[in-house]
Amino acid sequence: MAVCIIYHSETGNTRAVAERLAAMVGGDLLAVRDLAGYSKVGMYLKGAPRAMRGEAAVIEPATIVVSGYETVVVGTPVWARSPTPAVNAVINALAGIEGKAAVVFCTSGGMPGKTLETMTAMLAGRGADVRGAVAFTVRDVQKGEGIESLVDLVRRSEKELVVQ
Ligand SMILES: Cc1cc2nc3c(=O)[nH]c(=O)nc-3n(C[C@H](O)[C@H](O)[C@H](O)COP(=O)(O)O)c2cc1C
User: Fold this and answer.
1) How far apart are the C-alpha atoms of 160 and 164, rounded to whole Å?
2) Does the C-beta of 71 come closer than 6 Å to ligand 1?
3) What's the Cα-to-Cα distance from 140 to each of 19, 24, 143, rounded to whole Å?
4) Count of CB atoms within 10 A of residue 95's CB?
């Protein structure tokens, strides 16, 4: 069963979760870059307001074809209690997502707001069947905690697909 794990990460936390997940369930990892190329201060001054407004960034790669996968995982850092503009763009850029199982996760300082609900609604709007969502804190990432619930969601979704 093929899993595609797509993520945006500026300071490494979301990447760490994505890489641990890939090590445990297999699948392909895809890192997406925001071509705005924010500085540390720029992330707060420009990136966070854009995230709050729900804007989509210009990203590389611009199109993400997921038709060859059974499950698509999307991971985001939380910016201003929202998904990042890069991840909003990821969800818009997914080609072949209709009818696929999806799982979302975020990493944050502990105040994710409605980030996961927003991603879930956006993916459902693209026709994905969202199976679940997991929020990690930076502390979880540093301690390597919480990954089992994400692994479980992906494995369970894969099993259900086999039964159907
Ligand atoms: C611009 C910006 C805005 C942030 N906003 C929030 C927030 O609203 N709530 C929160 O808990 N953490 C917030 N954080 C912390 C990040 O969500 C956290 O450090 C995350 O793990 C970063 O992911 P990354 O290392 O993959 O880039 C923010 C960080 C940045 C840079």
Assistant:
1) 6
2) no
3) 15, 17, 5
4) 11
Over the stretch 21-67, which tens digit does the pLDDT of each residue have?
999 999 999 999 999 999 999 999 999 999 999 999 999 999 999 99
Q: What is the pLDDT of residues 100-146, one digit of tens each?
A: 999 999 999 999 999 999 999 999 999 999 999 999 999 999 999 99
Could you tell me if 81 and 110 are in contact, meaning their C-beta atoms sit under 8 angstroms apart? no
Instruction: DSSP letter for 44, please.
Output: I
Measured CA to CA, the distance from residue 118 to residue 152 in angstroms comes to 22
Indicate the residue type of 144: G
Q: Which domains does the chain have, with CATH numbers?
A: 3-163 (3.40.50.360)
Beta pairing, strands 82-83 & 71-79: antiparallel
Q: Please, are residues 84 and 75 in contact by the beta-carbon 8 Å criterion? A: no
Q: Are 27 and 3 in contact (CB under 8 A)?
A: yes
- Which of 13, 14, 17, 78 has the most ligand 1 atoms within 8 A of CB, as the residue to mutate? 78
Rounded CA-CA distance 102/46 in Å is: 29
- Other beta carbons within 10 angstroms of residue 99's beta carbon come to 8
